[in-house]
Amino acid sequence: MTPVEIPPPDALRDRIREAVSHTAPAGLTPRTRAAVAVVFILIAIALGVALMRPDIAALPPASLIGVSLGVAFLAAATLVVALSPGRHGLGAPVTWLVVLAATTAPLYAMMTMMAGLGTAPDGPPVRGCFTMSTGVALVGLVGLTYALHRSVPAAAVARGALLGACAGAWAGLTIHLHCPCGEPLHILLGHAAPIAICAALGAVISPRFLRP
Amino acid sequence: MARDWTKPGPPVARPFAVVSRHGMTQGDLDAAMARYAGGDDSAFDALYRLLSPRLYAFCLRLTRRRQEADDLFQETFLKLHRSRSTFVPRAAAIHWAFAVARSVHLDRVRFRKRRPEAVAETEEGLSTFTSVPSREGSPEEHARAKELMVVVDRVLRDLPENQRAAYVLIREEGLSVSEASSVLGATPTAVKLRAFRAYEAIREALRAAGLDDSELEK
């Protein structure tokens, strides 16, 4: 079949030529930007390791490693899908983006609560964990949004939400390694809620920076 | 048997289309875009020549007004230029350009919703494909095609933006449902449904105007 073709007016071409000559294109390639995003994530992980919980040696290694790897896998999966160019070069299918963005926080909460690694019922206050987790997640969200700056012409809201969930999941790994409290309410409010909040923020704020 | 409307059909505006006047192939366009994305400014002319006829037609369909289509087309090209380094080399350049054009168009629509006084729609400005002269067919065929185009143009104009975009991409641009869903950032099911609704609205309007809706398939 033949697609519809209508040549634009010639005057338009000269106007565009002129405008393009005065506009600087973005300098960084997506690969460089992805590297920047990875650096942000490495900082988040390093923070988690540096502030590691004091009871780490007393925890069953299999459970600790299993849950940490599970959370890391979840965070890595969100990262891969969020940065993936997809089949047509326009990003992963919107269904994947939405499903993953919506399920990251519940999956994280389920994994960390079921592991039963809490040794301090009266651990740090929820507010402390919430602040730290949200702070790390926001730094990650800024890095990831920068990585995809002006490169998401379609499904920018869903992609922004997944970037937020991804940043939140990496922050969740940090807080999981940091906080010894295993109370379900503490985990829900202090550890998992920042992931959901960050996903919502990503959906609302990131699109304007992600669109070309 | 009813036609499968999710398959790309012949373009509705076919009698008015300039068929591959530059002998454009997808490969040529993608190669030009890849060169341009790699920083080769000399690829601009080839890219413009290969991309502009389809992109401009798409902008016309989205905006429904010549003046606005010109602005959208120019802004889209600027955005393509500005974010050229983010183009994925193995991707289809035309799909990327359509996605950028639609993104720019939606931004403009949102802006206008905030400032409705900025828009004054005139009948003159609404014409799109109907004002493009035909180059093929007998006078009778041309007259019938033109009549059909007027109805299609009017229906498309009144459709919600998302249905119009889905219809144009699938039926006129020949994209698959999967490709159109990538360009529109929606699920394939949603895109199929939008295109179906648009198609049904057009068929209904053609029947109401006493035109044979099977003409749409030709």
Description:
- The complex is a heterodimer of chains A (212) and B (218).
- Chain A has helices spanning 10-21, 30-50, 61-83, 94-115, 126-147, 156-178, 184-205, 207-210.
- With 212 residues, chain A is mainly alpha-helical.
- Chain A has one domain (28-210).
- Chain A is elongated, with a radius of gyration of 21 Å.
- Chain B is mainly α and 218 residues long.
- Chain B folds into 2 domains: 19-126, Rna Polymerase Sigma Factor, Chain: A (Orthogonal Bundle), CATH 1.10.1740.10; 131-218, Winged helix-like DNA-binding domain superfamily/Winged helix DNA-binding domain (Arc Repressor Mutant, subunit A, Orthogonal Bundle).
- Chain B is 62% helix and 0% strand.
- Chain B has 9 helices and no strands.
- Chain B has helices at residues 26-37, 44-63, 66-82, 93-114, 123-126, 139-158, 161-172, 177-184, 188-208.
- Classes of the chains: A mainly alpha (212), B mainly alpha (218).
- The interface between A and B is large, with 43 and 62 residues.
Q: Please tell me the CATH architecture of the largest domain in chain B by its name.
A: Orthogonal Bundle
- What is the rounded Rg of chain A? 21 Å
As for the CATH topology of the largest domain in chain B, it is Rna Polymerase Sigma Factor, Chain: A
How far is it from the N-terminal to the C-terminal residue of chain B, by CA? 15 Å
What's the number of extended β-strand segments of chain A? 0
Structural domain count of chain A:
1
- Mean pLDDT rating of chain A: 86
User: How far apart are the termini of chain A?
Assistant: 30 Å
Tally of separate domains of chain B: 2
What is the tally of helical segments of chain B?
9
The secondary-structure element order of chain B is HHHHHHHHH
Helical residue percent band of chain A: over 70%
Give a quick account of the main beta sheet of chain A: strands, pairing sense, barrel closure. none
CATH superfamily of the largest domain in chain B: RNA polymerase sigma factor, region 2, helix turn helix motif
Largest sheet of chain B: none
In the CATH scheme, the class of the largest domain in chain B would be Mainly Alpha
Low-confidence stretches of chain B: 9-22, 122-127
Morphology of chain B: globular
Strand content of chain A: under 5%
